[in-house]
Here is the input.
Amino acid sequence: MNTGLQLYNTLTRKKEIFEPLNAPNVGIYVCGPTVYSDVHLGNCRTFLSFDLIFRYLKYSGYKVRYVRNITDAGHLEGDRDEGDDKFAKRAKLEQLEPMEIVQKYTLGFHDVMRVFNALPPSIEPTATGHISEQIEMIKEIINNGYAYETNGTVYFDVEKYSSEYNYTILTNRNLEDMLANTRELSGQDEKRGRLDFALWIKAKPETLMRWPSPWGIGFPGWHIECSAMSAKYLGDQFDIHGGGMDLAATHHTNEIAQSEACSHKQPAKYWMHTNMLTVNGSRMSKSLGNGFLPGELFTGDHPLLTKGFSPMTVKFFMFQAHYRSTLDFSNEALDASEKGFRKLMNAVNLLDKLNASETNDFDIDAITDKCVKAMNDDFNSPVVIAELFEAVRIINTVHDGKGSISAPELEKLKKLINDFVFDIFGLKDEDTSNLELNSVLDLVIDIRKAAKENKDYATSDKIRLGLQSMGIQLKDSKEGTTWSKA
Ligand code: AMP
Ligand code: ZN
Here is the structure.
């Protein structure tokens, strides 16, 4: 097992040696998407960064339980218990049931993660599937004296909590300043303190997503779901809690407060936050409306794009920045990533064609060590990429007959590429995968042709409809059958 891993802990504001609570087991919780609309590329950056971390922890020999939730209830437009419910608003707009909205955008999110070749999490719990766990946790917080009910809504008592715990431990903000800067909001007369936030919110007559509770009909506040679900699947204390940096000040601050008020324990040993993907310097966000959808990027169908970029190009572009640095989105940067990724893949495709020699000019262990060292240094992917280009240089040198590599070193080179390019970065060669898809489809079309000739229409229809559900359309003509992506 890899014991040299260091990661930056937002809680302590420094890099720390990673020492899991219960090695070799590692528990990691990442706040997932709010599924009332499509995920944009900024959201994808956060989830792909944690995919890299998940993959590297597994590569390092840990047995990882990766929990990434789906927020499908309780998310009001404002951060502070104000505004409309995002799901209900969207449901009205699209003339759908709120759970149809949830289903539509959850499936869309899964499709995007698959296209980016991200591994599915070990558990993907939903807020609506864990209402009773959230109610139990709220009851416990009330029993412990850190929450109170007013008129069917339950508030967390920040003042009481902060007399015993450090409420701003994650961001190091000054509580007095926070109080001074907090606006008066509706519902303020129900709250004892200005910073108090809702754990359970009383339903209005028009509220669509509603559940019974000891405090009447209502719905959970946004923050409680993550405290309840992380405790359920990872325990009161687990190793890593992650999300985008924008979540630290409110959502994660409140999560820590809720969990401590319930179990008297700091829920996660390490808090990790990814930095933002920006467009012309401003954060890409759903509410600012400057979000690029992954589909727009792949097709190039967006006013700010000069052409489309493939999913692996985009992923490679993201990993060329460290997850804690901002990353600005531009055509030029993506163009450069496209060239870089192609150069890497062209070299990777030459690997099997290289001949080993009796003599050897290269030290592959040195490159592998540098890659491991970079990943151990808080998952420094840009440094790994620089090292991978050193491997590219070696492959091209050997291929051009300008250097020789021995059989054992060639095996090490193959392992280096396999481990870092495919297993840890989760990249894949898009051209090759298209070649594979072509051959598989040729075979399936042949089987369908044979079925039709045998008048086995049930099988031929099953193939056609099955492919259709995967987004592949078959077209029969006199010349034969062709396929296209729907
Ligand atoms: P949401 O669906 O809005 O709850 O966001 C899902 C995840 O994406 C959260 O972890 C956010 O912090 C993260 N996120 C939102 N905007 C960006 C961005 N521009 N860059 C990187 N991550 C983001
Ligand atoms: Zn969360």
The chain has three domains: 20-274, 278-424, 435-485. The first helix runs from residue 41 to 59. The first strand starts at residue 6 and ends at 9.
